[in-house]
Queue: 2 jobs
Job 1
Amino acid sequence: MKLKENWESYVLRGELQVDTRQVIKEAWDRCLSHGVDYKDGYGKIISKEHLRIKLQKNKNLITIARPILDNVFETIKQTSFSLVLTDSEGVLIHVVESENIHFEHNTLNFVLGTRWDELNVGANAIGTALATKEAIHMVGSEHYCLSHHPWTCSAALIHDSSGQIIGCLDISGSVEEEHVHTLGIVTTTAKIIENQLALMESYEMMHTAFNAIVDGLFVIDRNYAITRVNEKIADLFDIPEEKLLNYNMKEILKDLEITQKVFIRGETIRISDYAMNLRHKKLECLINISPIQLGNHITGAVVLVKEAHQVRKVVSQIVGFSASYRFDDIITRDPKMLEAIEFAKKIALTDYTVLLQGESGTGKELFAHAIHNHSKRSQGPFIAINCAAMPKDLVESELFGYEKGAFTGAATEGKPGKFELANGGTIFLDEIGELPLEIQSKLLRIFDNQKVVRIGGQYERSLDTRIVCATNRNLRDEIEYRTFREDLFFRINVINVTLPPLRNRKGDIMLLGGEFLRVLNQSSTNESKGFTPEFEAALLKNPWKGNVRELRYFIQREYHKSDTHRIEARLQETPTRPVEVTDRGMDLKHHEKELIERALKATKGNVVEASRKLSIGKSTVYRKIKSYHIDPHDYQ
């Protein structure tokens, strides 16, 4: 009764009673200043579209609060109290009401989608809590509007992790059942909701971080059951996340000892080359299996899966598996050389196999680099292999790789070959004519279907590798001598680019010589040097059998030998034929044919073996065979 007198005294006559709470007096003042009608007090209904937007915006809050409110309501459902959740603007977004006050709720528009702030319905627990940013308990005539006087309400605010108000929780019921503990109930419940929201936010952050990892992740328990996966692993195997949870990791990693190493000893397993099989899909990867430890107990493990080709791409960039030169780096004015460049630019845009032919030092490797950098594979690895420099017993493992335990001395985890490392890029097989016949036959499958089988392997690995080959030999002659497979030649000779020798590019000699001199002067701390006219004339006269490489090395040598700023050295005439090996002092010129025939007879026409017996380069033996009109087939 006293509260009613206080309300009438202040709201109707403007006289404040001393026992009116300050917070109530201030709330009434706000209502008076806003011109709120104390005879009104009915919730303002928002549009259906506006309500839909608010429900969507506050979906997480409603999802978290609903089970908590249902649980609290179980303790008060026999009373005339109801639980109401609003957003930060006082709009009701969730209501749990007692049946015995359903009619009163509807009468006051105390229903979903109505606004209950002070501006629209006067001082009430929801609106005043939002206005003061404090929890509040209001009884009967402490409400501003007459229609609210039969009610008692308690409201507490809900904050997000940054402290911003995102909602309000209210308990409302008949004033006849007013109880001071209702404020404690809503305050505690609001705090529980805040804690749950914080946990949800933390989970969402972890979930986002989990899925932001560029590698695949499995989380497993000690029974090898998959308890969680990230989006990346689902993409790698093209299997929905929920279906992956039905697999057992022991079947996927059946060849690994995880129980003893990870679950018992707490060690981490790292394997740099592994083939993971899942639903008929094979993934070449690197895996780390790390224990999950809570206190002294290991509860499971995290399996991190890195795609092998992505790792190899990064490794290739780090170790320098990249092309250094572009077509603009090729120095020439020669029409035939310019024609070769334009042709190479065109075929670089395709994935065709290219055969570069020309004498040593004409720029075949430069062209190979440029073709890669001009292609759509320019961001992929570029791996150059000198086939003549690889030991015969290592050629196969270097090119094709091997599985673990494939042979004595093999790495325990296996090793990818150069073709695998070049996946997504270009492999350059320089001096391909030097490859042993048995390796040539194994190359055929790669050229045919872009698949490779490692030594000791049981399955084919798909490749996406562009192949560029180079040779200074006449491969058709090699085919005739049966040292190069004809079927392989047809596969590598899809596109042929032949580079002219320097002696046929007279206009490029001084152009190249000038560039080599410029680079030398630029790197020198002494006075710059120049060519004498006599030296230039000698450069133009020399046949340069070693082509551009020989020219560069010669200029470098003469540059550093010269003690003045003028390079005056004269070129010495080079021998017209190489010096050959002699047999116990006998003149090779008179007896080399006999020696070659004797070696061919001993090796049954095998030119390569004959060259080894004679300790002569096989290219020299081939040249002599041709000059002496010897047919190796006669000795087979």
Note: The first helix runs from residue 2 to 12.
Job 2
Amino acid sequence: MTPALHRFLTFLLPMILLVQALPALAQPAVLKGKITDAAGGEALPFATISVKKSARGTAADANGYYRLECDAGKQTFIFSFLGYTPREQTLELTAGGEREFNISLTRNDSVATWKPVVVTAGRLEQRLEQTVISMDILPSRLVENRVENTMEAAVEQVPGVTVIDGQANIRGGSGFSYGAGSRVLVLVDDLPMLSGDANDVKWNFIPIEQMEQVEVLKGASSALFGSAALNGVINMRTVMPGDKPQTTLSVYSGLYDSPEDERKKWWGSRSQMTSGVNFSHRRKIRNLSLVAGAHYFNDEGYRDGETETRYRANAHLRYKVNGIQGLTLGLAANTQKSEGGNFLLWQNDTSGALLPLGGAGQPGSTMSEYTSLRTTIDPYIIYSPGRWVHKIRTRYFFTGNKNNTSQNSDSRFYYAEYLVQHRLLEKINVSAGTSVSHSDVSGELYNKQEAGNYAVYAQADGHFGKLNASLGGRMESGRISGKKLDPQYLFRSGLNHETWKGGYLRASFGQGFRFPSIAEKYVRTRVGQLVIYPNDSLDTEKGWTAEIGLKQVVQIRSWRGFADLCYFHQEFSNMMEFRFGQWGTFSDPLFGLGFKSVNIGNARIRGVEINLAGEGNLGRVKQSLLGGYTWIDPEQTDFNAAVDTPRNTSKENILKFRFRHLFKFDSESSIGKISIGFSARFYSNIENIDAAFESAIPGVKAYRASQPWGTWLFDARMGWQIIAPLRLHFIVRNILNEEFMTRPADLQPPRSYTLSLSLKV
């Protein structure tokens, strides 16, 4: 052995022995256990455990079990969960050993700090500020205090969101599509609410009386949620029982004021009224959680013939099985019958603005009378042993439509999804699943058609100190009436980093798509003399969204909120638009003029959004805020002036039926037994529509010319706690009685008044 080799081995061998000995010398200790609710003994899923004055920490799993590696010796641990009083506990841990420590936390409803939790961004609970994509939440408190009777009216309060003829639009991603093909996937408790025939949203069917909060995911999200999530997701989460039973009953009545232009008032001296009742009861009976609700609403209508009467009942049962850890069985059901009239186009912009083209109840009228029955039945199973969570969710959705235009139809939508989630290395949550859906429609309107989708997907969400990361993908295939659609392969990713205290930088990219609906491809129908034409050659539309954003936590005394600034960029290919033009022959009604869904080509929407939301106490005043401003630049990237300009009212390259500027704001202040709320909305003028609208529909061109700048709308409300369980609300909508349209020939409501009395025990 050479002297040099001897010296090297003399140095190396002790180092090897030292490295081998280090794990034993610095072997960590393990603390494990379960975190539960002190009152009911239920697990607190995803509660947090941290070592005091250290960056080390973890979160419990879906069953409240946790496991934390840390240094040996005496350590002080902090156990916390939203809405509960945190607890500190000092424990002695042995190197290389495991110690089990179970702890219960006490609910603290007086905690003023607002720390909203969402599930839609990654299908697991997350703090709002830690999501990698833009999200807004709409709390049930705002919906209750505004006495909204449909979810459509409720989501109109969310910044960047509009709803035109039932079609949700997030940041200008959609235009006008009458009754078919939503680019926004609407969910109730993660189950799709789109009908099987037209893939549209039945907003008045969503059980608003059972709402906990609405989560709005902005941007292409098909990699996690599939077809129709091209523009985003709106997910309503229903409330479940707490420790004490609760019953809520709300009775309300209202009336429409006269339009500002008295020539438009068709109902004479008698006021047009609205009335409604909401009922909800929630309680626990041992292992059974029960939620039951009912709803009634009657609207005499501010437009001639556009009435609505609906009755709804729903229930949700959830049972925790004894003897099998983590097994829960559930069943939810909702059914509604409604009848009334659908208004499509006005007679003219003056005395006939609130009268249907062709007259109410007359042959050839654009007002149709309907009766509908809708029912959902949703059995599900959740099994979560330890770090695993298995979910099987299913849905049966029946829609039956009858009307006076020989367009009766029945639609049956079947949906099933299996989702498995697992926590790895205390930092990564992995989700994977598969879903299948089938639609079967028949009747005078459809003859007989069917469609179906099948998908597999996976996603990983990691939490690494101040960094949150998300990565996922999806494959989905579909068919319509036996014709296969091209399978879609999708990808999404995102990062969120707490760069400074309370300042969260995020960046994300997500792909989306939407298969055409049965109605868009195969249905030819009429509303009066107006024909809606099918398009058998309609192709799948695709797109992607990229964004960068900053969310800053704002803390003022006991008031907490978020200020959010975001730049977004959306690209679409084969974009579908609902066009008004001559699609038929001269022998057809109106010489072939009508609506048709077509692929217009490629489009790009860029924009900026600034939001502010929060709630809490400022001295004696409880203050809540929700507001934001959205600016978009929507254009067709393959715009051909020679071909496209004659079809449009704008000579510039701008997508149709978009609001370039959108502002939303809502504020509510409460002190003692009195609360006062105020909201404002601004819609800039729609710069571009189909030219045929102005030439074929009386008064559209003149009315648009009279409102070139846009419309401000203001609402106000006041609440009074008469006695502890009884509360009175008074709401005035459209205080200034402004006239406005969200699409041509469709004047929105004049000023209205609503009085509500609610009982909560």
Note: The mean pLDDT is 88.
